[in-house]
Design brief:
- By secondary structure, the protein is α+β, with helices and mostly antiparallel strands.
- The protein is built from eight helices and 16 strands.
- Helix 2 runs antiparallel to helix 4 and helix 6 runs antiparallel to helix 7.
């Protein structure tokens, strides 16, 4: 889970060799980026050394507060969008400036990482002269710093005047809070914009992504008849919940694993004589013995897809597999939407050409 980030800012990549192709204004921008590099790296170190796992509200808010000061300093109006307490999420940072010149831009980042509070913490560590490691150094505190560095360079050269730009940093990108409130403000502000650019690393600093797969979570529960292990497979006992979950997961693999752009992964599984799974904390507890047939299994997983049709088709196949049960077992599966699929579009291809 340790991420790496090349410390050269994306805006400066490759520009030295092609400097003769840049305008005088563009060369000034690049010079500002390079001049600010020590300051940008110092900020990155500061952000990475804060544990800001999605459920660590204090850490997420601390990262947001640091970035908020940076945006205030370059003339953005900032606000913190708080979430309802029951949602148990920190909220989002929004930085805006409004004008009448050019396209309305929507720049996307996120403040949280995948790490839980009880995980070993990995601080920012320099590996060599161009590479560092640490929690969230790439995904996506590095991207947040690149976004800010670009705007700082533009501001220093008087190029933000009269522009309309919204920089939006969500606090629950890795595990979206339940309910419409989690994304309502984000969606509303996105609809006011002409162009959206996300600064999370895709395939390196020399490429941009013009499409993104959507994500959905799923939870599978299987049930069997409890009993002594010596009676497993007998007609009046059946196969138990663990064998039923294994059958289902294996059929998922057989029927769906070769489809292009589609992935699914059972990230957590608990089974035994007593099962407790807390979806809000992604935490499971189990009790049992090797000589007891498990009456219950809980599996939590992830589904990723390019289009909504691909998602719906996959869910249909998964439901059909779940409905076919081993003797004396039953199963159920539920799905939760997280992010929609974003397939390639002509508009995105045009943006890619402009960014090149």
């Amino acid at each position: 889970m340790r991420k790496q980030l090349t410390l050269a800012c994306a805006l400066a990549c490759g520009f030295t060799a092609n400097a003769q192709k840049l305008t005088a204004t563009e060369q000034k921008i690049i010079a500002s980026v390079k001049q600010n590099m020590p300051q940008s790296e110092k900020l990155l170190v500061q952000l990475v050394n804060i544990n800001s796992g999605t459920l660590n509200q204090k850490g997420v808010q601390e990262v947001g507060a640091i970035l908020r000061k940076e945006f205030d300093a370059i003339g953005f109006k900032t606000e913190w969008v708080a979430m309802p307490p029951a949602m148990q999420r920190a909220g989002h940072l929004v930085a805006q400036r409004k004008g009448k010149k050019g396209k309305k831009l929507f720049l996307i980042g996120h403040l949280d990482t995948v790490f839980e509070l009880d995980m070993p913490f990995t601080k920012y560590t320099q590996l060599n002269d161009s590479t560092a490691t640490g929690q969230g150094v790439n995904d996506m505190k590095g991207g947040d710093v690149v976004l800010l560095a670009a705007l700082q360079a533009l501001q220093q050269n008087g190029l933000l005047d009269n522009t309309t730009i919204t920089a939006y940093f969500t606090g629950d990108e890795e595990r979206k809070g339940e309910g419409e409130a989690s994304r309502a403000d984000f969606i509303a502000k996105a609809k006011e914009s002409d162009v959206a650019l996300a600064f999370e690393s895709a395939a390196g600093l020399h490429s941009v992504a013009t499409a993104r797969r959507g994500s959905s979570s799923w939870q599978l529960k299987t049930y069997g008849q409890a009993g002594h292990s010596s009676t497993i497979f007998k007609p009046n006992v059946g196969y138990g919940a663990i064998f039923e979950s294994a059958r289902i997961l294996n059929e998922f693999r057989e029927k769906l694993s070769q489809e292009q752009y589609l992935t699914f992964n059972p990230g957590l599984i608990v089974g035994g004589s007593e099962v407790r799974y807390d979806a809000s904390k992604a935490h499971g507890e189990v009790a049992g013995k090797t000589n007891i047939i498990s009456p219950e299994v809980a599996v939590a997983g992830d589904l990723r897809f390019l289009t909504e049709k691909q998602k719906d088709d996959a869910r249909t196949k998964m439901r059909e597999i779940v409905a076919r049960n081993l003797p004396n077992t039953r199963a159920e599966i539920t799905f939760t939407d997280n992010l929609p699929g974003m397939p390639p579009t002509p508009g995105n291809q045009k943006l890619a050409a402009l960014a090149d």
